[in-house]
Design goal:
about 90 residues; mainly alpha; two-stranded antiparallel ribbon; 2 helices; elongated
Length: about 90
Amino acid sequence: MRVLTWAIWLAIFLFLLAFAARNTDPVTLRFYFDLAWQIPLVWLLFGFFAAGAVLGLAAVLGAWIRQRREIGRLERDAQAQDPLRRAPPAAEG
């Protein structure tokens, strides 16, 4: 199974590498006030992909932190209600 997973990741990597190699033509990104920036298309695509990933993670971060707080509060409440229930023993190193 591990070999299959690595083979799939390798195929995806090679596909993206070939995509990047085929899209090196410069494109012009135009801003306001006649500002323009020329960069290879693949870098522009990668930049927008990275910005989307960062914005997606930022959108999920608030809910994730809120859920972690709620889980901690519920665990504390459960331990306070059941005195026989203890935290799991710490792993010995």
